[in-house]
């Protein structure tokens, strides 16, 4: 929750103008509450921003409170991508818990940039050359942020040229995926020395998120 949201909730609690979301049971200022129909006792059914986005048929799913917690930070009215991303079937509840922790400190855009940087460094020097984000990339990202107590960061956006040099593109979520099939894809942007290269840092080092690190010299790029 942002400092503005915290202040609003504190004021609402002090003045008694607080409602409880009927789905996630979190307290919300009355002015931010959405009316989601009626209860059996004839009173209004209130929803927070996150739960209001979730279709009524899905609001009672066990996973719905986790979706809501994330959507209260990454509001679809600001960036629609998180709403589609969190509902992908491969995402487990433990994954959503970690995603929610990231959402409290960083925008979805910042998270996608940081993740792309980690994925590209893995392709460049790691053993796993899969040209899309993998679960381990998310683990490295979470650990990197955790080690710095989730301090604010300003990751440098991956440029079109960087993507082209590695034959990558961004998908609808803003995450890397393979570009058009090419014969040298297995070595495109890959350092011949791999993890033995002296010009590397751990994937979780936040310097990996910078343009300067991604463009450093000294690697033996195959193609």
Q: Count the helices. How many?
A: 9
Radius of gyration of CA atoms, rounded to a whole number: 21 Å
Low-confidence stretches: 11-15
Terminus-to-terminus distance: 45 Å
Structure summary, number of beta strands: 6
For the largest beta-sheet, the strand count, sense and barrel status come to: 2 strands, antiparallel
Residues in helix, %: 25-40%
Strand content: 5-15%
Strand order of the largest sheet: 1-2
Question: Any overview of this molecule?
Answer:
With 223 residues, the protein is of the alpha+beta class. It is 37% helix and 9% strand. It is built from 9 helices and 6 strands, in the order αββββαααααααββα. The strands form 3 sheets. The chain has a two-stranded antiparallel sheet.
Give the tags:
9% strand, 6 strands, elongated, two-stranded antiparallel ribbon, 223 residues, alpha+beta, single chain
Report a brief summary of the structure.
The protein is 37% helix and 9% strand. It has helices at 3-15, 49-53, 64-71, 81-85, 93-103, 108-125, 135-147, 160-165, 211-214, and strands at 18-20, 27-29, 34-38, 44-47, 168-170, 176-178.
Strand and helix layout:
Layout: H1 3-15, E1 18-20, E2 27-29, E3 34-38, E4 44-47, H2 49-53, H3 64-71, H4 81-85, H5 93-103, H6 108-125, H7 135-147, H8 160-165, E5 168-170, E6 176-178, H9 211-214
Antiparallel strand pairs: 1-2, 3-4, 5-6
């Amino acid at each position: 929750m942002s400092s503005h949201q915290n202040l609003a909730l504190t004021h609402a609690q002090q003045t008694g103008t607080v409602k409880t979301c009927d789905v996630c049971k979190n307290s919300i200022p009355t002015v931010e509450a959405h009316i989601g129909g009626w209860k059996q006792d004839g009173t209004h059914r209130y929803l927070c921003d996150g739960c209001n986005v979730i279709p009524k048929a899905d609001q009672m799913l066990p996973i719905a409170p986790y979706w809501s917690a994330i959507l209260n930070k990454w509001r679809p009215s600001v960036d629609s991508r998180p709403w589609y991303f969190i509902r992908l079937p491969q995402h487990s509840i433990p994954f959503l818990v970690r995603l929610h922790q990231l959402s409290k400190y960083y925008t979805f855009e910042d998270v996608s940039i940081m993740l792309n940087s980690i994925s590209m460094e893995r392709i460049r020097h790691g053993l796993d050359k899969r040209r899309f984000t993998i679960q381990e990339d998310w683990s490295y990202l979470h650990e990197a942020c955790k080690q710095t107590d989730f301090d604010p960061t300003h990751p440098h956006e991956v440029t079109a040229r960087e993507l082209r040099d590695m034959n990558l593109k961004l998908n609808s979520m803003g995450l890397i995926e393979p570009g058009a099939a090419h014969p040298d894809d297995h070595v495109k942007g890959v350092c011949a020395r791999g993890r033995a290269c002296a010009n590397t840092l751990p994937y979780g080092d936040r310097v990996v998120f910078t343009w300067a690190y991604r463009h450093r010299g000294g690697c033996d790029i195959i193609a």
